[in-house]
Amino acid sequence: MSYGGRFESLLGRRVTQIMRPVLEALLGKAGLRVLEYHLEKLLQEDPYSVLCNEPHRFYLAVKSVFGQGADMMIRIMAKKMIEEGVLEASDPSEFLEALKDQQKGREKLLKMLRLL
Fold first, then answer.
1. Separation of alpha carbons 69 and 28, rounded Å
2. What angle (nearest 5°) sits at the alpha carbon of residue 99, between those of residues 40 and 4?
3. pTM higher than 0.70, yes or no?
């Protein structure tokens, strides 16, 4: 594995460590398992790695699961992350906009999670 590959793997694991507890707090253990199952099925790979590497693709998968409620669910996730001090954003909408941004979303997301 190249240096870049190891770095990406570390980032993916860190995103998992940040996101899983937040989602579990919001959805419960069973709800988290259901969400992860559906996201993994849609994405054909680990959803947290996709969030880290392709935030817009992750957003589209969440939208497939939650429909019109996706944006609200993402804002709620972001609010919880801000409250817990794991997301550096002044407003939950910043997180949502990063996921929607196909060009610079990854960079924005990693900065908000303090991984860049």
1. 18
2. 70
3. yes
